[in-house]
Amino acid sequence: MTAIRVCVKGAGEMASAVAWRLFTADIKNILMLEIAEPLAVRRKVSFCEAVYDGSHTVQGVEAVRVEDMVAVRRAWAKGKIAVGVDPGWSFQKQLRPDVLIDAILAKKNLGSSIFDAPLVIALGPGFRARRDAHFVIETNRGPDLGRIIGQGCAEPNTGIPGNICGHTADRVLRAPAEGVFQPDRQIGEKVVCNQTLGRIGDIRVSAPIEGVLRGLIRPGVYVNKMMKIGDIDPRGDSALCDCISDKAATIAQSVLDVISREIGHTIWDTFDTPSAGQLHA
Predict the structure, then answer these.
(1) SS3 readout for 90-130
(2) Cα–Cα distance between 68 and 106 in angstroms, integer?
(3) 8 A C-beta contact, residue 33 and residue 93
(4) Which end of the chain has fewer CB atoms surrounding its CB within 10 Å, N or C?
């Protein structure tokens, strides 16, 4: 387990929870792949912040930005997660990982293949187990959250955020217009309903409810209209801004369970990967 190489596509909130859980379970050779300008909202718990700042720590685990495979191995030697800007996934081909995890959460498959690694795991809708990945993990809140799917797909995206203290869609900040977002508040601050949180050009962005600003997109980022740019937690506890959510933790544990089980069964010798002919049958 300690020697396996894991490649995680994405380094946002959910991908970071997965990487954090694997790292704390002594799976430390982790490479995360990101775009040049990540758009994470829950930045405190997203390793993609290392793309901007060079390094970022989530609950005691540090990730550092890397530029090549030499830097990846250097980061691993120092006990850190590696984060590379690599939208074309060339690092993945050089690494030849034992485990590939698609945690982009794009609600569709952007190019992952069941042949990318001996064990391929995908999070959420847009993937079919045994066709696109060996296993799919359910990401929809409810009784099936974190379910390990060995045949079939995850539930379709509902578009409705999880319920916190009776609030769902109204706790999410969405851009009222297209343009560059400039915030007036910071993550962790308490806000009241209708308080100004920032602006996109001359257009005001206001708080829809009272609570703590749990997430906010990075200053100076260009956003599209109705894009998610913030998250208000009505529980009012600023300490939660630095914590991996219960949803992310559940999904991350399921990923670890799959890896532990399949590596334990020596997946390279026994795992039944379908042939290309079977995939198109």
Answers:
(1) HHHHHHCCCEEEECCCCCCCCCCCCCCCCEEEEECCCCEEC
(2) 26
(3) no
(4) C
Whether residue 63 contacts residue 19, with contact meaning beta carbons closer than 8 Å, is answered with yes
> What one-letter code names the amino acid at 137?
I
- Cα distance between residue 239 and residue 147, in whole Å: 28
With H, G, I as helix, E, B as strand and everything else as coil, classify residue 74: helix
In sequence order, what are the residues at sequence separation of 6 or more whose Cβ sits closer than 8 angstroms to the Cβ of residue 117?
7, 96, 97, 98, 99, 100
pLDDT band at residue 117 using 50, 70 and 90 as cut-offs? very high
Angstrom distance (rounded) from CA 188 to CA 183: 13
> Can you tell me the distance from the alpha carbon of 25 to that of 260, in angstroms, rounded to the nearest whole number?
10
Measure the CA–CA gap between 281 and 174, rounded to whole angstroms.
42
- Residue 247: is it exposed, middle or buried by C-beta count within 10 angstroms (0-12/13-18/19+)? middle
**CA distance readout (Å), 132 to 15, 72, 80, 153:** 18, 27, 29, 10
How far is Cα 162 from Cα 160, in angstroms, rounded to an integer?
A: 7
Kindly report, residue by residue over 13-36, the tens digit of the pLDDT: 999 999 999 999 999 999 999 999
